[in-house]
């Protein structure tokens, strides 16, 4: 492959890290993946080891390049995409984290969010950030770390108060994009989509918000500089004396869901995608207008290119979809995810069984932190096939919850939905989703659109791709799914889903 050049993308997700290399046509020419440990210190707590993530990142980069016979200096740029909201602090001197990263799924700060509600700050948070006050976002995670991280872990001659050192810029805050860019380039930056998920960033003024920083007692000095998602000036370059032995610009970054929006070439207002990963994330581009939601959705930043206006999006965050399939594996109801389609097809229906996979609460449009997973409608005749089918149906129902809210907020009737992520390889799920939502489901040839989106952002910044029209030309359809179920039947099943949701709500109580 000598002489050709490419763009690489680090895709750091909830369960693992991937590195993919793309050519001019948007085709994958190299790919490596490695899982990392999920750490559960207490019920409802989820952590990752940032040093393990960085080690794995280096490993997948070198592995992918080596297996494909690509030299690092054939990369014109690297893009980064990441699990959003996951939060860590690290020592600026040593570059080492002061604590494990707190993952977006973590619920340890639920009480703090309820305090915000009691203090009447929910509307303020929503007006400034477009977000619901929820433990999902970074602000309360960073606050918890500042209050609870052990000073002894800090590599300093004397243990020092972490908050005091943060106020001096000696302890740094970041989401995973910042952590990777810092380790790749030495620069402490983030970009607008990740900043917009912290519950600290004013998405209208496009700056860190002093009132919110004061509320969560987070020093401005520890925050990264916020840059465009596709940055002509680049965020910095890899160290030629480092693990790659080459100086490669890191020029683009997006939170994973916005990266998928970009990779699905949803560049115009009204275009929408849904990514089926650990959770599912449904985004619609609303152009340069931040549309306020009246139906439980988030207003967020979709992307920004250098010298251009921010593009906003409406988002419905569904906390558990792919993770529900992993749960079936954990219970040994299935041996692997591919088995779900076979088992679901083996029965005519769920036999009245509904699964509500609210393992970490309910996200959009319900926002119930104390909801918990529920199975209802079981009889002595219920078999695992019914539970598996009901679990797949729960993914489709949750997506319809968000789709209806999206149409109500935007005033746009959705005729097709672009889908991506691991779960969309399941044809049964794609057809079921089309039936329940009542619109066409469009699956692209390259379904790893998260990595592709960050590669596009980086490649545009350095001129590897000239303009977004060329990216549209790259986007190719693999398969389309049209509704086959009678509308009345889909509506009947969906109405019953609402009854099941009611059983799951407000379940978790302190001390239970």
From TrEMBL:
Reaction catalysed by this enzyme: glycerol + ATP = sn-glycerol 3-phosphate + ADP + H(+)
Domain Carbohydrate kinase FGGY C-terminal: 273-461
Residues noted as binding ADP in the record, renumbered to the chain: 14, 18, 278, 322, 422, 426
Cellular component GO terms, alphabetical: cytosol
Annotated residues for binding of sn-glycerol 3-phosphate: 14, 84-85, 136, 256
Residues the entry annotates as binding ATP: 14-15, 278, 322, 422
Involved pathway(s): Polyol metabolism; glycerol degradation via glycerol kinase pathway; sn-glycerol 3-phosphate from glycerol: step 1/1
Taxonomy, superkingdom: Archaea
Enzyme class, broadest EC rank: transferase
One GO MF term: glycerol kinase activity
GO BP annotation list: glycerol catabolic process; glycerol-3-phosphate metabolic process
NCBIfam families membership: glycerol_kin (TIGR01311), PRK00047.1 (NF000756)
Protein name stated in the entry: Glycerol kinase
Annotated organism of origin: Natronococcus occultus SP4
């Amino acid at each position: 492959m000598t002489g050709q050049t490419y763009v690489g993308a680090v895709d750091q997700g909830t369960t693992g890290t991937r590195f993919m290399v793309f050519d001019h046509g948007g085709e994958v020419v190299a790919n490596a993946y490695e899982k990392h440990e999920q750490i559960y210190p207490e019920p409802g707590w989820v952590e990752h080891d940032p040093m393990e993530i960085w080690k794995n990142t280096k490993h997948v980069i070198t592995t992918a390049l080596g297996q494909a016979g690509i030299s690092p200096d054939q990369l014109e740029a690297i893009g980064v995409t990441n699990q959003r909201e996951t939060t860590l602090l690290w020592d600026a001197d040593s570059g080492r984290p002061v604590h494990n990263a707190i993952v977006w799924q973590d619920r340890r700060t639920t009480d703090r969010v309820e305090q915000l509600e009691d203090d009447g700050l929910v509307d303020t948070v929503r007006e400034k950030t477009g977000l619901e006050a929820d433990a999902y976002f970074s602000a309360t995670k960073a606050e918890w770390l500042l209050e609870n991280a052990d000073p002894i872990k800090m590599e300093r001659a004397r243990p020092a108060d972490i908050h005091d050192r943060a106020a001096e810029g000696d302890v740094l805050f970041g989401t995973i994009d910042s952590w990777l860019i810092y380790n790749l380039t030495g620069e402490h930056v983030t970009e607008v989509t990740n900043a917009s998920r912290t519950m600290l960033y004013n998405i209208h003024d496009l700056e860190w918000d002093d009132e919110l920083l004061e509320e969560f007692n987070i020093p401005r000095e520890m925050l990264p500089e916020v840059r465009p998602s596709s940055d002509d000036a680049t965020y910095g370059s890899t160290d030629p004396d480092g693990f790659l032995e080459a100086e490669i610009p890191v020029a683009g970054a997006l939170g994973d869901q916005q990266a998928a929006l970009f990779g699905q070439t949803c560049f115009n207002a009204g275009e929408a995608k849904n990514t089926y990963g650990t959770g599912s994330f449904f985004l619609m581009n609303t152009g340069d207008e931040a549309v306020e939601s009246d139906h439980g959705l988030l207003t967020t930043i979709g992307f920004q290119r250098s010298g251009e206006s921010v593009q906003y999006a409406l988002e419905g965050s569904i906390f558990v979809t792919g993770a529900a399939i992993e749960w079936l594996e954990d219970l040994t109801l299935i041996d692997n995810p591919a088995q779900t389609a076979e088992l679901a097809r083996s029965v005519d229906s769920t036999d009245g069984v509904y699964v509500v996979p609210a393992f970490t609460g309910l996200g959009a449009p319900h926002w119930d932190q104390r909801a918990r997973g529920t199975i209802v409608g079981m009889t002595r005749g219920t078999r695992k096939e019914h539970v598996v089918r009901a679990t797949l149906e729960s993914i489709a129902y949750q997506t319809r919850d968000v789709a209806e809210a999206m149409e109500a907020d935007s005033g746009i009737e959705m005729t097709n939905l672009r889908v991506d992520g691991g779960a969309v390889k399941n044809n049964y799920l794609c057809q079921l989703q089309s039936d329940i939502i009542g619109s066409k489901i469009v699956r692209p040839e390259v379904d790893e659109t998260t990595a592709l989106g960050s590669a596009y952002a980086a490649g545009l910044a350095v001129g590897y791709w000239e303009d977004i029209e060329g990216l549209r030309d790259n986007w190719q359809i693999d398969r389309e799914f049209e509704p086959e179920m009678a509308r009345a039947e889909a509506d009947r099943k969906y109405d019953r889903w609402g009854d099941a949701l009611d059983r799951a709500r407000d379940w978790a109580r302190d001390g239970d």
